[in-house]
Design goal:
Blueprint lengths: L10 H18 L1 H6 L1 H29 L4 H32 L18 H4 L7 H7 L7 H5 L2 H16 L3 H25 L2 H15 L9 H25 L4 H7 L1 H10 L6 H10 L4 H14 L2 H17 L6 H17 L6 H10 L11 H4 L2 H26 L5 H9 L14
Helix pairs in contact: 1-10, 1-13, 3-8, 3-9, 3-10, 3-15, 4-11, 4-15, 4-16, 4-20, 6-17, 8-9, 10-13, 11-16, 11-20, 13-20, 14-15, 15-20, 16-17, 16-18, 16-20, 17-18
């Protein structure tokens, strides 16, 4: 009989304890909490360091191993269609909730009293990240450019091209594919070592957030934060829950299946910290490496459900808070522009404010300086955006794989019901 692990050695329990301790330190000793910031930043940086090589190895090995190259294009097309449908739904849900809850009504903010210099950094960049510009930046300046800058889409493009090239080399290609697979095991070994520091990273990140941004000072905007969290929860349970039901699996069991990764996202406010781990988890469900490698990383740029809810909810919040009336035509223009802008600014630092500023440009009735209202609470909303994005991309990967006929209903249900009995993925190095 296998010996049961002590409760204190379980990663998600360690992260939970770290989040609780970090919150206490940040609340009672705010200066100390702020000083803990390097712990969170360091952990995120370590994970980001490994994202590019992990994605490259997974996708190259997956594409090079596929005999039918039409499958890669078919999976890519289905993925983009799914992403567009779900992203648009997320935008619409944000708008509907803003109309029902009306979080900005009664604030009566005078835009003239807000300092436009506070948001000048974000506004100056709104014209630099259009949809066409973003498409062009998918092409790196050099082969190693995507690895240097950590751009997921650039690495994905290079990996697909490399996988195609290797698949045409015959026996030599098979040897190269095995070598890439071996390199992938090394990179995942490094990830496992780094992941042991997740509680330290969560402790530092939460300590900084609570210490830097006094929760009591956000009382006036607490309604918006609550509305956003409620909207995201409803989107996950109802919209993604319905999608999961149609794909014959339970959204609640899937959330339980990835609870370790979700706690790390909560602690670090970054969905990138769990990208490699999530890809491993999805492979353990029986999803082929090719599908995981094509769908999940691409979702970080094209399927940001949490960010999309945030965009439309906040646009209408700012309109309500400044007593700006928007016609249905103007709201439709916001929706159409957001469908493009939400992809165009993906992967850019400060993406929320950059994209919001761009959206406000199509409804000039809302004063651009009103964005200053959101600066103080953005950190508290970023955790929810990241959590929703990760869950949405995980569901997308399963759904696309089901569309391809790669997964059996019984296999996925049993895997989600009994995750402890799952075999490790080949990339884990212990299979």
């Amino acid at each position: 009989m296998a010996r049961r692990r002590p409760w204190y050695s379980v990663l998600y329990i360690q992260v939970l304890v770290a989040i609780a301790l970090g919150s206490l330190v940040g609340h009672f000793f705010p200066d100390t909490g702020v000083a803990l910031k390097p712990l969170g930043d360091g952990f995120v940086a370590l994970i980001k360091m490994m994202i590019a090589p992990v994605i490259f190895c997974i996708v190259v090995q997956g594409v090079a191993s596929v005999k039918d190259m039409k499958k890669v294009g078919r999976v890519g097309l289905k993925t983009l269609i799914y992403f567009e449908i779900m992203s648009t739904l997320a935008l619409i849900v944000g708008m509907l909730v803003a109309h029902v809850i009306r979080p900005g009504v009664g604030l009566n903010i005078n835009p003239a009293a807000l300092d436009p210099k506070i948001i000048s950094t974000y506004v100056s960049r709104t014209g630099e990240n259009g949809f066409v510009t973003r498409l062009l930046t998918i092409i790196p300046d050099t082969f190693v450019g995507g690895f240097v800058h950590g751009d997921v889409l650039q690495v994905l493009l290079l990996a697909i091209l490399t996988g195609f090239a290797i698949s045409q080399l015959g026996v030599l290609g098979e040897g190269i594919t095995r070598a890439v697979g071996a390199a992938g095991k090394v990179f995942f070994g490094i990830i496992r070592i780094i992941s042991k520091a997740a509680p330290v990273g969560a402790f530092g990140a939460i300590g900084f957030t609570v210490g830097r941004y006094s929760i009591a000072s956000l009382s006036n905007l607490a309604y918006l934060i609550g509305a956003f969290y409620l909207t995201s929860l409803l989107f996950v349970l109802l919209v993604l829950g319905l999608v999961a039901y149609l794909a014959n699996f339970s959204i609640l069991r899937f959330i339980a299946f990835i609870k370790d990764e979700l706690l790390i996202v909560l602690g670090t406010s970054s969905s990138e910290t769990v990208l490699p781990a999530m890809m491993q988890k999805l492979e353990r469900l029986g999803i082929p490496r090719t599908t995981v490698g094509l769908v999940f990383p691409a979702g970080y740029s094209f399927n940001t459900d949490g960010t999309n809810i945030y965009l439309t909810l906040c646009v209408l919040f700012l309109a309500q808070a400044t007593n700006t009336h928007l016609t249905w035509a103007e709201e439709l223009r916001v929706l159409l522009f957001a469908m493009i802008a939400s992809k165009g600014a993906s992967g850019v630092s400060g993406t929320g404010f950059v994209t919001l500023a761009g959206i406000l440009s199509v409804v000039p009735n809302i004063p651009i300086q009103a964005l200053a209202l959101l600066l103080g609470i953005d950190k508290f909303m970023s955790e929810c955006r990241a959590l929703t994005n990760v869950i949405g991309n995980g569901v997308a990967t399963i759904v696309v794989s089901r569309w391809e006929g790669e997964l059996k209903q019984k296999t996925v249900r049993e895997a989600l019901a009994h995750p402890a009995s799952l075999p490790l993925a080949a990339s884990d190095g212990d299979a």
